[in-house]
Amino acid sequence: MDDLITKIAAIESRIGAVTVTAKRTRKDITLLAVSKTRSPQRIQQVAETGIKSFGENYVQEALEKISALQHLDIDWHFIGPIQSNKTRQISENFAWVHSVDRVKIAKRLSEQRPLNMEPLNICMQINIDNEPTKSGFSPEQAAAAALEIVALPNLKLRGLMAIPAAQVSIEAQRIPFAKLRLLQDSINRSLDNSEKLDTLSMGMSADLEAAILEQATIIRVGTDIFGPRDNK
Ligand SMILES: *Cc1c(COP(=O)(O)O)cnc(C)c1O
Fold it and tell me: 2-225: which CATH number, 3.20.20.10, 1.20.1290.10, 3.40.1180.10, 1.10.579.10?
């Protein structure tokens, strides 16, 4: 628990410093704790420090934790690859999905969203540098896809998400994040006022400063909150 408090204080101090440089407000940035592979006990400890948003990558693993932690007030975000046959479980159990990479997936999520729940918050995953091995809409496809997704009834299209290739310098890290921001500005010009995108999900443990400088509103941090993952 002590190490968690130290780690979260360190993250908060990084966010605080870059927020000042960027002339931004701390409350406009959500720290999403990426909890894949972490136990419910560990997640509960992080939740007790005041973090409310948690990100999961694997449906089955996530459902077990969501059920075990029902007593906590947590917003669950799905951030992993989406198979068509998992959309119902995702749509019924999460508040947000960051990794929508096909219109077909968005349609299924909308059809399967229970009507007694709030609309499902959606980010379109963008393959911002057109990397051949990465999933996501290409920047060129994104605007047309956004127009289809905003029309779906049980979703709320909130913004864009990207996982750029790792770079060492902050200058190099900023380039793809700036591209994502400009893409969002351009999509917003084709949307009605009530539909404008307000979310940029970008930045992880190693590049959160660059992301915040480029107007990230959700940073997704795993390692620097929970410690290294033991990759099975
Ligand atoms: C695992 C993961 C993260 C967190 O990465 P860290 O380097 O551990 O901070 C963020 N986003 C996505 C989509 C992930 O899969």
Answer: 3.20.20.10
